[in-house]
Amino acid sequence: MAATTVFFCKECGYETSKWLGKCPSCNNWNSFIEEKIIKDKKQNRTFNDKSAVVKLQDIQLKDDIRIDTGYEELNRVFGSGIVEGSISLIGGEPGIGKSTLIMQICNNLAKQGIVLYVSGEESETQVKLRCDRLGISSPNILFLNETSIAEIENKIEEIKPKFCIIDSIQTMYDSEVPSGAGSVTQVKEVTARLMYLAKRKLVTTIVIGHVTKDGTIAGPRVLEHMVDTVLYIEGERFFSNRIVRSVKNRFGSTNEIGIFEMCDSGLVEVTNISDAFLSNNNNILPGTAITGTLEGNSTILLEIQALTSHSYYNMPKRVANGVDLNRLNMIIAVLEKRCNIALGMNDIYVNVIGGIKIDEPAVDLALAISIVSSFKNIVIPPTYVFIAEIGLTGEVRSINNIEKRVKEVEKLGYKKIFGSKKQLDKLKKEDYKIELIGVNSIEEVINLVMG
Fold first, then answer.
1. What integer is the mean pLDDT of 318-339?
2. The domain 276-450: what is its CATH number?
């Protein structure tokens, strides 16, 4: 064995033979750490004991290659279920519900085969307390309190489970690697060995990962590149809604989300997604507007709230929760320039109800209307929905998949929908019971809604 000293970027995993102040890959400063790696020339892992070249067209797919997790919301995020022999990474903030969701998945997977739950953080007593709280008791769920990847491999070879849970990847270590658990080299090596096991033995593996203060999974970025699927659990710790979002999926779409609600009995999937993000006060106060956004194949109606108040500082505050702050500043500038609404001396706070984050421009119109509603102290009728993008000149622009959004809005009983005139005029209005109101500019919408 030969030992070599290398430098790794702890943010992206970039490797170099000398220390650098700035990473050329991710442009982060002072992110390189020194580690020793041992290269074993005899070590040569392959997915199969005897590798063979086969014709791609001759490969036969099994009907049961997709595994049901027991939750329709989660199956959709994975892409119709977990693929057999895949390795998935689930991340989230502390206390968000990662271990709770994983334990509930284990209870459902145990009906299809043996599940080996490996924990490097919690004792068997702590895991048992969680199982009792969730009402989980299955003879097919086996527990192993271990952090050595070599011992874990031996147990997998001995037990031959169908599923394996690793909690968490940052606590696992390889004794052949001369660095601490959670280091760049350790995380890369342990993940490589887990991936080898998953592919060779067809052990479907789910790995739990911690997140940093920036909200990304701790460890090198290459960790996310190595696994097949990366899921994030989002949501405020003190609110009940949890959003499972796919950011990487080799076997499905990355635009899907699953909605769960944290209850005393664990996480419960939400079938009517829009109800989870709409308040029960029927918009009786100024500063509230309803919009429709797309998440994968699902249309979600969201409530956007805005609050404007006179500022007592030289620089008024602009706070955006759930929407991009730069997008909010752009909307404010358009309202001041094109609509002559003086917002320059007002603090403006914007919040998306439910803790969801929106990154599409289709919510621009609702965002602008909610700000004007709060500024003028005028209530927007609770049966109005606003879906459109706003340009810098104040024009109301078209968005994608308007038909799908209109059908969802109509199904939930709303009366009017405001959007781009060019786009709504193309729809056959006789096909919809909801009133389609097409507008050309933000000023026209304000006049129609607020007089």
1. 94
2. 3.30.230.10
Which pLDDT value is given to residue 219?
Answer: 53
Q: Which of 137-141, 322-326, 429-433 has the lowest mean pLDDT?
A: 429-433
Which residues does 76 contact at the CB level (< 8 Å), separation at least 6? 256, 258, 296, 297
Longest Cα separation, the chain: 79
CA angle 261, 264, 270 (to 5 degrees): 20
CA distance 132 to 80: 29
Question: Which sign does the torsion angle of CA 421, 422, 423, 427 carry?
Answer: positive
Residue type, 165: I
- In the three-class reduction of DSSP (H, G, I as helix; E, B as strand; rest coil), residue 115 is classed as strand
Burial 408-441 (b: 16+ CB within 10 A, else e): bbbebebebbbbbbebbeeeeeeebebebbbbeb
pTM: 0.72
Quick one: tokens of 429? Answer: 């209005």
Q: Decide the pairing of beta strands 204-209 and 346-352.
A: unpaired
Structure confidence by residue, pLDDT tens digits, 351-372:
998 777 888 899 999 999 999 9
Q: Which long-range contacts (CB under 8 A, 24 or more apart) does 177-183 make?
A: 177/37, 177/38, 178/3, 178/36, 178/38, 179/35, 179/36, 181/120, 181/147, 182/218, 182/219, 183/33, 183/35
How many angstroms separate the CA atoms of 246 and 249, rounded? Answer: 7
How far apart CA 175 and CA 40 sit, in angstroms, is 13
The CATH class given to the 68-269 domain equals alpha beta
Residue 331 is which amino acid? I
